[in-house]
Design goal:
It is a single chain. This protein is an alpha/beta fold. Helix content is 37%, strand content 18%. It has a seven-stranded mixed β-sheet, with helices on both faces. The relative contact order is 0.17.
Amino acid sequence: MQRETMMNQAENSSCDLTIVIPSYNEGECLEQTFNEVNDVFLKESLRPNYVLVDDGSSDSTPQEIEKIRQKHKDQVSVVTHLTNKGLGTAIKSGFIAAPTDWVGWVPSDGQIAPAGVLDLYKKRNGYDVMTGKVSVAARLEADNWFRLILSKGSRVVMKMLHPRMPSFNGIIILHKPELNLNALMCTTGFVNMEILDRLRRKKRNYD
């Protein structure tokens, strides 16, 4: 079994949210993404915690993560996968390591606007999970049509199987005590749908 490491668990802040940023060979854009997310929350006088997950990167990602950690020691924790395990596993690892009850995630390539995550967090009261959508134009900057069509198709199937499943394409924050995160099995970005399905089976509220 591959060993995983976690360093410097973030201290409590005025914001009971941890944002997970999973990265696989995203060294060129990781710091910019982190700063954009952090700045959006700071403008609202909120200081979230962060878990930066290095999913077995072979580029400058580990060095960039350490640079961010050194600048924000009171906010940032680090999880390292020695080999690439997939986006879903990276999200799961980050959620488990999060020091707060509320967790969310953003991709390190910046395809999801930080303001969307902030908006979900501010509207979370009374719900166990909040989901949202990002524009197709924004997704195309980081993805391609094939992946978008595949993603859309999977959501259509999930909607047919579970009519009450909310419509979304990637933005999610979760009250993690409501879910056994260790039971998550999906190793891809579709882990979001697995989370919603598991909550649905528990008959919890979601928006």
